[in-house]
Amino acid sequence: MPQANAVVHFEILGKDQKLLEAFYKSVFDWQITPMIEGYSLVKPGSGIAGGIGAMGEGRAHVTFYVAVEDVSAALALIDSKGGKKAFGPHPIPDGGIIAGFLDPEGNLIGLVQGPPRM
């Protein structure tokens, strides 16, 4: 179980996913594995894992994801403190939930709620 509210994932999204993948693989020797259309997972040598993908209709960005117990509750708190929901909540393949918000300066930050415990 990750530490409460730890940074657990990063993303690099842009117009040309293949270009980004080739760049980061050649610069940092990251292992990059396709996950779904338009998105690949990154396993750096150490540190947190991440993803590289195509932005679709969104804006190009680099962001990170913070682990929270309850995505909906976190979004409500963020809204009350001057932030704004950007996307989600959405289910992810491992059973978890992701969402994103804009901080008061417009920076995109992600939230991730782990999968339900068995």
Quick recap of the structure?
By secondary structure, the protein is α+β, with helices and mostly antiparallel strands.
Query: Uncertain segments of ≥5 residues (pLDDT<50)?
Result: none
Query: Which series of helices and strands comes N to C?
Result: EHEEEEHEEE
Could you tell me the radius of gyration in angstroms?
Answer: 15 Å
Strand content: 35-45%
Which architecture of the largest domain per CATH?
Answer: Roll
Terminus-to-terminus distance: 13 Å
The CATH topology of the largest domain is what?
A: 2,3-Dihydroxybiphenyl 1,2-Dioxygenase, domain 1
**How many β strands by DSSP?**
8
Mean pLDDT: 88
Structural classification: alpha+beta
Q: Categorize the overall geometry.
A: globular
What is the total domain count? 2
CATH class of the largest domain: Alpha Beta
Give the biggest sheet.
Answer: 8 strands, mixed
Q: What is the overall number of helices?
A: 2
**CATH level-4 homologous superfamily of the largest domain:** 2,3-Dihydroxybiphenyl 1,2-Dioxygenase, domain 1
Q: What quaternary form is this?
A: single chain
Helical content (DSSP H or I, runs of 4+): 10-25%
Strand order of the largest sheet: 2-3-4-1-5-8-7-6
How would you explain this protein's 3D organization?
This protein is α+β, with helices and mostly antiparallel strands and 118 residues long. It has two domains: 1-63, 2,3-Dihydroxybiphenyl 1,2-Dioxygenase, domain 1 (Roll); 68-118, Roll (2,3-Dihydroxybiphenyl 1,2-Dioxygenase, domain 1), CATH 3.10.180.10. It has helices at residues 17-28, 71-80; strands at residues 7-14, 31-36, 39-43, 50-54, 61-67, 84-91, 97-102, 108-113. 17% of the residues are buried. The mean pLDDT is 88.
